[in-house]
Each structure stands twice: as C-alpha cells, then as structure tokens.
C-alpha cells in the first residue's frame, strides 16, 4: 500500500492527493478520516444495505422483503451516482457484495448467508496478507509503492531495512483485522438465523470503523513522514 528507493520518486500531484479516497490517503501528508471512508456519502452507501437487511429481517422474520430492500438500496446508490456523473466505484463495489449476498441467501433460504460472502472475502484477504509477508512481498509495501509510482527496491536494499520492517508490521496489522473479523463473525454465522441480528451488528461495527482505524495506524507506520524517517540518509562526505 511507498518505498525507500535509491532514487526518490516524483511527489504525488497535490490535486490527486487532495482528493484521495480509501487506501490512497496513505500518500497524503495528513490523514483525513472523511476521505479514508469515502466521505459521508461513502459511509452511508457502505452501511445502509446491510443495516436495512438486518432491521427488516428482525422486524418481519421474512427473508424476501429484507433481501429485496437491501438490493434496492444498493442499486439506488449506484443509479444516483451515475445520474449525477460522480465516481461510482465505491458504490459499484458495494452493490456487487450485496448482490452476491442476496443471491446466496435466496438460494439457501438462510438469512445468515447474506453475510457469507463477506466471511469468504475476509478469509481470502487474511490468507493473502499473511502469504505476502512470508514470501517477502508484504502487501502494504507493494500497494504503497504502486500508489506512489515507486519501484520495489526496498525489498532488497540493505539500507531500507527499517522501512521494510514497517511494511511488514503494517501488513500484519491488516491480517490481524481480517482475523479479528472472522474470529467474531464466523461463530455468529454458525449459530444460524437466531444470531443474524448480532452478526449484522458485528459486521457493521467491524466494517468501516475498523477499516478506518487500521488505515490510520497504517498511515502512521508508512505514510510519507514515517517513510521519510525510515529512509537511509545520504552517505557522509569523506574528509578532504
């Protein structure tokens, strides 16, 4: 998610950095919580479909209306963005997850399966982040290097050991987040429909808020200031 390169990369375009969203806030000199979660609108689009599903299901104990309502809410968010010609990437990614959840739960008839896709996604991310560290390509370092248009010389540069460690710590931090989600949500999922309310609550609490917290901690570890402090200084000038 930049790298301690032998040759410094060009600074990010201020216009781009100023509008950074999601993991792109890692390129900014200051951390913006609002930008990290995609703004208030992004927060609403992320939370509302799942919240609507849980509330309607708990009120009616009828799966179909809850699934339809969640799908409609997610679709409306995309349509509104398209009509307003605003970036719809976040809304599209959200609607994909909702559609998969709706189809999965519709097929099985089990309300908890609305959240099954999210559990699989967290499991895959947990495996991916852990493997990336073990093979020497910590995912946070790769992503930050790509965002800053820098090469991956930090992986082998002896002078970049401090930065490399920071990338490893940050990647384990993300692995910990995915593991924590699974540790809390998987047992609730296995309890079936009786725990759907608790599962939905856990999903919301460990969704955007936890993501934003981990992103902030990652910025503290590998943001521009932290990366600059971890870079090796220039070699001393030999005496004359």
From TrEMBL:
Pfam families: DUF3159. Keywords: Membrane, Transmembrane, Transmembrane helix. The chain crosses the membrane at residues 51-80, 87-105, 125-147, 167-184, 204-222. This is Potassium ABC transporter. It comes from Actinotalea ferrariae CF5-4.
């Amino acid at each position: 998610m930049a790298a301690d390169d032998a040759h410094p990369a060009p600074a990010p375009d201020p216009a781009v950095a100023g509008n950074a969203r999601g993991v792109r806030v890692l390129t900014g000199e200051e951390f913006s919580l609002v930008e990290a979660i995609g703004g208030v609108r992004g927060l609403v689009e992320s939370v509302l479909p799942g919240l609507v599903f849980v509330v309607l299901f708990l009120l009616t104990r009828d799966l179909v209306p809850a699934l339809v309502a969640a799908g409609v809410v997610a679709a409306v968010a995309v349509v509104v963005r398209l009509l307003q010609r605003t970036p719809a990437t976040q809304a599209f990614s959200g609607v994909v997850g909702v559609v998969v959840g709706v189809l999965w739960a519709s097929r099985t008839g089990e309300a908890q399966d609305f959240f099954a896709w999210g559990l699989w996604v967290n499991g895959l991310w947990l495996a991916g982040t852990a493997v990336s560290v073990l093979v020497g390509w910590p995912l946070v370092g790769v992503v930050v290097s790509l965002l800053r248009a820098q090469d991956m010389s930090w992986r082998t540069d002896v002078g970049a050991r401090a930065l490399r460690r920071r990338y490893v710590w940050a990647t384990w931090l993300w692995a910990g987040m995915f593991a924590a989600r699974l540790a809390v949500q998987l047992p609730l999922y296995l309890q079936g429909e009786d725990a759907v309310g608790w599962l939905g609550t856990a999903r919301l609490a460990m969704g955007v808020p936890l993501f934003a917290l981990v992103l902030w901690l990652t910025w503290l570890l590998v943001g521009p200031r932290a990366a600059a402090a971890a870079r090796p200084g220039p070699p001393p000038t030999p005496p004359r």
